Amino acid sequence: MNSVSPSAAQYVGLVMQDEQVESWRQPALERQGSFGFRAPQVSDASREAAREPDEMDKVKAKLMSAWNNVKYGWTIKTKTSFNKISPVTILGHSYLLNSEDEVERFRRDFVSRIWLTYRREFSPLEGSTWTTDCGWGCMLRSGQMLLAQGLMVHLMPRDWAWPDAQQLTDVDFEVFRPRSPVRAGGVPIPSFGSLRGSSTPEKLPASGQAPRYCQRRRPESAKDRQAEPIHSKLITWFGDQPSAPFGVHQLVEIGKSSGKKAGDWYGPSIVAHILRKAVAKTSVAQTLAVYVAQDCTVYKEDVVRLCDLSPSQRPADPSNQAWKSVVILVPVRLGGEALNPSYIECVKNILKLDCCIGVIGGKPKHSLYFIGFQDEQLLYLDPHFCQPVVDVAQADFSLESFHCSSPKKMPFSRMDPSCTIGFYAKNKKDFESLCSAVSMALSSSKEKYPIFTFVEGQGQDYGLEGHSSNHGGPLAHILPPGPLSRSNNRRSSEEFVFL
After folding, report:
1. Which of 134, 138, 296, 355 is catalytic?
2. What average pLDDT score do residues 458-465 get?
3. What residues contact 219, with CB distance under 8 A and at least 6 apart?
4. Distance of CA 173 to the CA centre of its chain
5. DSSP one-letter code for 427
6. Catalytic residue among 109, 224, 240, 382
7. Exposure of 440 by Cβ count < 10 A (0-12 exposed, 13-18 middle, 19+ buried)?
8. How many CB atoms lie within 10 A of CB 418?
9. pLDDT of 391 higher than 80
């Protein structure tokens, strides 16, 4: 189910009925005048130069926008169940949900993650009539969340938590003990949606010993509050305005060099390269670089050449400040048509690492941003909820719609094998530790060959243009040529080398 922030859903009950009527009435009128008739081709040189969309494109965009605004503008709220005896992992942090304090720590951690979803009513994307990314921009939104997490650990204090997370009190999950005779559906921990003073904490085990994972709720720290201006500034970089360096307008513009346009579906591999170019293009993240692995291989010398700002210094000092922090993105494919179960343990071990910033992928034709797991289920943030655009240029704009209070899970077996894994290293010493820790996690796979590898030396720079959907060079495809591969436009942008 789609994740929902309570504040983001405020407009649903009041406005949704009028919007649905209006959105269905308008396409109906447009449909009468467009079906069965096509305007003749107009050979207007000025119009051709400006590449204005023709009338049919405009009608198609309006119809798609109206339908997707209805489809993704509402949700059925359900509670996700978590058991008490297995730890929940979120990007290197583990929580055992057998006490209210531990549940509170988990809740604060989850709510503090930046959540970027479909938006509507923003200014038209250049060269099109699209004013929403509903129905086609989910992978771009997942990529934004991945990059936002990298920027969070890059700019914010370690273990930062959003000080205002407590205001999102409508937390839609419950905790239960497996095989408990009380209630199979789950036993909610008290006070999720109320003040903590009004509830009674759950009793500890009979032994009287606190569980190993249990800690007292961390009080709001001065560092968290002092970092709020950075938090707000970071979100403005992902705003839905043409000037935002990592907004959908910029990402779509960068994607044009690969043959993509507004309304197309983007794969996890091409999004990785779009993010790389977006970071290289802007001046707001001059101390950060993005490296995209090639052919499932991270070439260490390429990373060093990208990050080391003092190449003449030999040997390089691991603590040298003249080193750019780096986000490493690794596009991979974890199987053929479906996820290879042999890779599940490996993915779990990767998500346990502090250096991991998440995985963008999802289930077929449905992009998600994976940030953790419990047992055999992945924990994710879902971009498939359409919210009104927020003017981030205003002072003190609301941050509530950029944070989610509804953790959701799905089985590993439903995960699409195409994905991109993200890592972050602050300096050279961290990068060396990252290579060692990730290599150890990759060795846990039951397969003969790892998901990807770290090697010395440098590789060929393919660049974004090499990942164009109409690229004619020799590529290794998963699907054989045929009607299925031609009809599935999504797979055409995902190029992987199989071992």
Report:
1. 138
2. 57
3. none
4. 21
5. S
6. 382
7. exposed
8. 24
9. yes
Q: Is the pLDDT confidence value at 326 over 90? A: yes
Hey, what are 161's tokens? 């938590």
* Annotation says 384 is catalytic: yes
Of the candidates 31, 253, 285, 232, the residue with the CA atom closest to the CA atom of residue 123: 253
91: CB partners within 8 A, 6+ apart: 149, 351, 354, 356, 357, 358, 371, 372
* Cα 471 to Cα 278, 389, 465, 467, distances in angstroms: 21, 35, 8, 7
Please say if 214 is a catalytic residue.
no
101 tagged catalytic: no
Quote the pTM value. Answer: 0.73
Q: What is the pLDDT of residues 215-269, one digit of tens each?
A: 444 556 788 888 999 999 999 999 999 999 999 999 999 999 989 999 999 999 9
In angstroms and rounded to an integer, the radius of gyration of the C-alpha atoms of the chain is 24
Note the helical H segments in 54-160: 55-72, 100-112, 138-155
Please report where in the chains the tokens 């305005």 appear, as a residue: 241
Residue 413 has pLDDT above 70, yes or no: yes
